[in-house]
């Protein structure tokens, strides 16, 4: 049974269609990445799947008792207001010290409970958001552009962490990516969105689809680059101390491109 599905879903704002006739389903344990240009409706689709936005047409169905974990695109925290990581993890639902420690260890941020949220690096902040999402033991993780603003090594490190979480917990992952040229190689499916579903399939199939190349203006040389790495070694040294670093050989590119990311 699908964890969550949309049938002929349409969403309108002020009479204008933002999403038209979207049909998709997320199956247990799979990683699905949604790509699309700004204004293509990616975040709107996530909000509709979460039940925050009502559809104008169609329906969203969730498996009974589905446990969701959500990592938002942006979370503004007043830097003048004291907020420790431990306190943040208990918002909105209080968790025990043991649960908080376990969640932080899972995202490779041990001993960070007393750190101020405002003092975290970009990569640490995103992993704390992930730790909070994991506290509900989700069957489905929904991530809205979780690596936006991270530099390339930080992005690769976060993708590796998501892959490890999926492998260890069995949770499915639905992720919106801000980078039109790069997706996690572990993605089972990539969905290209621009108000409607333009194309979908495995990363390599999508990278060769004319709809993908037309949508992102990459011409005949267009191809997705895939973050991937070997699993025969430990990453404790580059994730265990809150750093956002990765070794260059952990990142395999299908083609050269300029990320233009800010450094975390």
Average pLDDT: 82
Number of strands: 12
pLDDT < 50 runs, ≥5 residues: 229-264
The fraction of residues in strands falls at 15-25%
How large is the radius of gyration?
18 Å
The structure class reads alpha/beta
Largest beta sheet: strand ordering: 5-6-7-3-9-10
Number of helices: 8
**Describe the biggest sheet?**
6 strands, mixed
The global form is globular
Instruction: Work out the helicity level.
Output: 25-40%
Instruction: Determine the N-to-C terminus distance.
Output: 39 Å
The sequence of SSEs as H and E is EEEHEEHHHEHEEEEHHEHE
Give a brief rundown of this model.
The chain is an alpha/beta fold.
Any overview of this molecule?
The protein is an alpha/beta fold. It is 27% helix and 25% strand. The chain contains eight helices and twelve strands. A six-stranded mixed beta sheet has the order 5-6-7-3-9-10, with helices on both faces. A three-stranded antiparallel beta sheet has the order 2-1-4, with helices on one face. It has a three-stranded mixed beta sheet with strand order 8-11-12. Helix 3 (97-106) crosses helix 4 (122-134). It is globular and about 50 Å long. 38% of the residues are buried.
Key descriptive features of the protein:
single chain; 264 residues; alpha/beta; 3-stranded antiparallel β-sheet; 8 helices; 12 strands; disordered C terminus
């Amino acid at each position: 049974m699908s964890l969550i599905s949309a049938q002929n879903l349409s969403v309108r704002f002020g009479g204008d269609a933002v999403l038209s006739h979207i049909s998709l389903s997320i199956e247990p344990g799979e990683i699905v990445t949604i790509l699309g240009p700004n204004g293509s409706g990616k975040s709107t689709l996530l909000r509709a799947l979460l039940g925050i936005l009502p559809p104008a047409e169609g329906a969203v169905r969730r498996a009974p008792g589905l446990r969701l974990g959500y990592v938002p695109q942006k979370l503004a925290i007043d830097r003048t207001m004291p907020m420790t990581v431990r306190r943040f993890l208990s918002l909105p639902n209080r968790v025990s010290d043991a649960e908080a420690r376990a969640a932080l260890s899972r995202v490779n941020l041990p001993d960070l409970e007393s750190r101020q949220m405002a003092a975290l690096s970009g990569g640490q902040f995103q992993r704390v958001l992930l730790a909070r999402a994991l506290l509900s033991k989700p069957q489905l993780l929904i991530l809205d552009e979780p690596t936006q603003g991270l530099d390339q090594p930080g992005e690769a490190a976060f993708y590796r962490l998501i892959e490890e979480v999926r492998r260890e917990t069995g949770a499915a992952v639905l992720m919106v990516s801000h980078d039109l040229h790069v997706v996690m190689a572990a993605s089972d499916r990539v969905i290209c969105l621009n108000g409607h579903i333009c194309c979908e399939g495995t990363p390599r199939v999508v990278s060769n689809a004319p709809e993908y190349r037309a949508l992102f203006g990459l011409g005949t040389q267009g191809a997705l680059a895939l973050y991937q790495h070997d699993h025969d070694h430990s990453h404790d040294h580059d994730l265990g101390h809150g750093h956002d670093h990765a070794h260059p050989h952990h990142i395999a590119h299908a083609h050269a491109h300029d990320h233009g990311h800010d450094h975390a």
